[in-house]
Amino acid sequence: MSLDLGFSKIEGFEWDEGNLEHINKHGVNFKECEQVFVNRLILIKKDKKHSVNESRFRALGYTNNGRNLFIAFTVRAKKIRVISARDQNRKEKFVLKKIGGERG
């Protein structure tokens, strides 16, 4: 089940030293994260396990270069705040392939 977050209402991204440092540890840069949201998103689901203080979501998508990424994020004041980003694992790649969205 996909989740409609009303992306037409999103006004950009929220970046700071903390989330930039975290994604860089996984070898991902902020431009790649933004590309996942600009390109056709394959799957967005609510992350109920990590949604105690605020709603969090998981996204599977791809960059302009075809890199398949997993992104954990939240929405604050109409901006996407990436919490973490990394390459997809085998199971996530399988899900993309199964629904016909694998690019990388």
TrEMBL record:
**Pfam families from the entry?**
BrnT_toxin
Name of the protein in its database record: BrnT family toxin
Q: Which organism is it from?
A: Candidatus Woesebacteria bacterium RIFCSPHIGHO2_12_FULL_41_24
Q: Which InterPro entries match?
A: BrnT_sf (IPR038573), BrnT_toxin (IPR007460)
